[in-house]
Design a protein that fits this description.
By secondary structure, the chain is an alpha/beta fold. The protein is about 45% helix and about 15% strand. The protein has 13 helices and 12 strands. The strands form 2 sheets. Strands 2-1-3-4-5-6 form a 6-stranded parallel beta sheet, sandwiched between helices. It has a 6-stranded parallel beta sheet with strand order 9-8-7-10-11-12, with helices on both faces. Strand 11, helix 10 and strand 12 form a beta-alpha-beta unit. The longest helix has 22 residues. The protein is elongated and about 65 Å long.
Length: about 350
């Protein structure tokens, strides 16, 4: 069996990239050795230390165990790439270990263009070590146009363990109350303040007591313009809203099953295929989401509503439609879990990644 060295984020702030990496190493049938590349969050010193450890451990594994493949999720941030990913890629090239890179965000080409000339030269030289890059949607392939001579590309859609769960009965609620869930890291670009303003407008037009909001996620202190105090004040201005903090496992599943509608109002510039949208579909929620990244493809064949990013009036109107048309919610409960199970199965995801890694000559 192939020996694979897997390098990706296993600690730090929860991100889609981290969750996808952990999903793969839990479900792959290959012989994996996983190394934590360090996650988001933390101060400069802790980030520098985690990157240095990742480099040392990865190069030691390559020298001592000679893996057949290196699977990694490289960073598009200049400092992280130059001081962490580049040394590992150069070592893999020197040792003739084929590299598979998995791109999760949608900002690589923009980040590359904004890099200082020297950093971009290092990135380009290192990326010539990558034999295969995996993207989440065919429309992401343009990010690697500069490396078309050196690497092949393959599309593998994201997955969620919830997609493989039996469809659960949602927690009964008051038929006249629209239960809304926001599930994401708490940062400005994720659109939470747009959502709270839309809920405020809903209450102004429809009356208070007809909508509730639960917010789940980590307050991303290093990259957020929303403090815990500001979040508390914003939610406190609504008739029924509460912040539950970051949730995992059964607690997150319970939050999903308490809701009728999942809202993803992100306008993050590097949004791609968010796992929270897949989780909401798997739980049978009606999804209202920004037309951003590749969310439209995730929602294909489901009950949903797409709105333009930052369109607060459109978001408030979508909430009113969901409130006034309970048939939308009923169809979402019936249709969306089946679609999620068919398209976003973990078994499909792990098998496709295993095949991509194995097939690389």
């Amino acid at each position: 069996m192939l020996k694979v060295l897997a390098l990706g984020p296993m600690s730090g702030m929860r991100t889609g990239q981290q969750r996808a990496f952990l999903l793969f190493i839990r479900h792959s049938a290959l012989q994996l050795t996983a190394i934590d590349s360090g996650g988001e969050g933390g101060g400069f010193a802790s980030k520098a230390w985690s990157r240095a450890l990742a480099v040392a451990r990865a190069i030691r594994q390559m020298l001592m165990n000679r893996p057949d493949r290196l699977y990694m999720t490289a960073s598009s941030k200049p400092m992280a790439f130059v001081f962490k990913d580049a040394p590992i890629l150069f070592a893999a090239r020197l040792l003739r270990i084929p590299v598979i890179n998995h791109l999760h965000g949608n900002g690589f080409s923009q980040a590359r263009a904004a890099m200082p000339m020297l950093a971009r030269a290092v990135l380009d030289a290192a990326y010539r070590s990558i034999r295969l890059s995996i993207v989440l949607d065919p429309r992401m392939k343009y990010h690697f146009d500069a490396y078309a001579r050196y690497m092949s590309l393959r599309t593998i859609m994201n997955a969620s363990e919830l997609a493989d769960c039996p469809t659960a009965t949602q927690t009964p609620g008051d038929r006249g109350l629209l239960r809304v869930l926001f599930l994401s890291n708490i940062q400005l670009y994720k659109g939470l303040l747009d959502l709270t303003e839309a809920v405020r407008r809903f209450e102004s037009s429809e009356g208070r007591g007809l909508i509730s909001l639960e917010v789940v996620g980590t307050i991303a202190k290093s990259i957020s313009d929303i403090s815990a105090e500001e979040l508390a004040a914003e939610l406190g201005s609504l008739s029924s809203a509460r912040y539950l903090g970051p949730l995992d496992g059964e607690a997150k599943l319970a939050a999903l099953h308490r809701a009728d509608v999942f809202v993803f109002p992100s306008y993050h510039p590097s949004e791609a295929s968010p796992l929270s949208v897949i989780e909401a579909l798997s739980a049978g929620l009606f999804v209202i989401a920004s037309r951003i990244g590749y969310v439209d493809e995730l929602l294909s064949g489901t009950e949903h509503r797409l709105i333009s990013p930052r369109d607060i009036s459109g978001l408030a109107a979508a909430l009113r439609d969901a409130s006034n048309n309970p048939g939308l919610l009923d169809r979402a409960r019936a249709m969306n879990p089946n679609t999620a199970r068919r398209r976003f199965s973990v078994n499909r995801y792990a098998a496709e990644l295993d095949d991509a890694i194995t097939a690389l000559s």
